[in-house]
Amino acid sequence: KSWSKTQATIALSSGEAELASVVKGAAEGLGLNAVLADFGIEVDLHMFSDATVAIGMVRREGLGRVRHLAVADLWIQQKVRSGEISVARIPGVDNPSDMCTKGLDLPSILKHMGNLGLILATGRHVLAPKLQ
């Protein structure tokens, strides 16, 4: 699943903003994992980000030199250490979330859509109501 949201908190640095988005994504992912588990579907949670600083923050233990760290930021460190969540870097040009956050040219959009298994189609589905 993929989506885009605006950030509710004010970040004092780009690293802090990136960390907040990784934490939010992890929380959403674990929520989806719980729903799937209710249906007997077990999946692993793999998060990909182009935010090198945020990935470094969630992989280490403790605050480090970060000044404005919330409890949620320590929570995700524990989830990564336990193996409940894996995090990896994806280069920005290969990150499909760019479709929701940046203005892209058509070839880039089509590349990201292909990586997500989406196709560009015209017309309406055969079951859609007829338009007058």
Helix content: 40-55%
Which regions are unreliable across 5 or more consecutive residues at pLDDT < 50? Answer: none
Q: Main sheet, how many strands, which sense, barrel?
A: 2 strands, parallel
N- to C-terminal distance: 34 Å
What fraction strand? 5-15%
In N-to-C order, the SSE pattern is HEHHEHH
Which class of secondary structure composition applies to the elements? mainly alpha
Total of DSSP H or I helical runs spanning 4+ residues: 5
Strand order of the largest sheet: 1-2
Q: What is the residue-averaged pLDDT?
A: 84
Question: What oligomeric state do these chains adopt?
Answer: single chain
Keywords:
two-stranded parallel ribbon, 132 residues, 2 strands, globular, mainly alpha, 45% helix, single chain, 8% strand
Describe the structure.
Helices cover 45% and strands 8% of the residues. The chain has 5 helices and 2 strands; from the N terminus they run H-E-H-H-E-H-H.
List the helices and strands and how they pair.
Layout: H1 14-38, E1 45-49, H2 52-59, H3 71-82, E2 85-89, H4 98-101, H5 106-115
Parallel strand pairs: 1-2
Short description:
By secondary structure, the chain is mainly α.
